[in-house]
């Protein structure tokens, strides 16, 4: 399976901050926002990852992450000239996907939780599509999943005025190799975008969509606004200081997946000791 991080968009909900920097390069407590979705893909056992950015920000991402070899990854880059919907990512990434299964994670989504992390490796052979649902208080802001009495998905709607449930679709999607053709076949919505909901609806129509509900104790944070970024930073700070376990670290995730050695993790930690982040990496190497 391959992975895609969609880190494009103009970040208008964060203006004026994002007039000068990509929101996915902004800090969530002690690390860049993009580290968190990158960690999620690594936890799923994915090594080949494409990062889709705006043309203006591509070089900044390359400077931060390079070719990924320090994490035991193969990173590549592509640009999204204009944000025309999440499903556009699969069309941009067609050559990269090359018929393989693929995971898409949004660059401003943060996930945490033991049961969530444990479920990720099971998604590597989706046999259709696998998405996650999370119960929220404001489902009208998201794609919403309706379930039957047996817990099977009945329908998915994009930002409905009258949601049929309180379960929102989170920004992490696993699909088989059919997803490129499906993305090409859907038409733009009234918003003029290729909606990821339309992709999910097609998999649902085929009877090939699994919807996994995130369990109590799992955490999903969408950091697209100033308030949500501040809340996410506070969550990461509190959890790391309280438990001593680093959240959203690609270095630690790569070590746990066997992508890099203990010696390599220590080497990555050394230049980061002054910031305190390196201390977390050394602790992980000794754990």
From TrEMBL:
InterPro entries: G1P_thy_trans_s, NTP_transferase_dom, Nucleotide-diphossugar_trans. Its cofactor is Mg(2+). PANTHER family: GLUCOSE-1-PHOSPHATE THYMIDYLYLTRANSFERASE, GLUCOSE-1-PHOSPHATE THYMIDYLYLTRANSFERASE 1. Keywords: Magnesium, Metal-binding, Nucleotidyltransferase, Transferase. Gene3D superfamilies: Spore Coat Polysaccharide Biosynthesis Protein SpsA, Chain A. It comes from Corynebacterium flavescens. Pathway: Carbohydrate biosynthesis; dTDP-L-rhamnose biosynthesis. SUPFAM superfamilies: Nucleotide-diphospho-sugar transferases. Residues 2-236 form the Nucleotidyl transferase domain. This is Glucose-1-phosphate thymidylyltransferase. Belongs to the glucose-1-phosphate thymidylyltransferase family. One of its GO terms (biological process) is polysaccharide biosynthetic process.
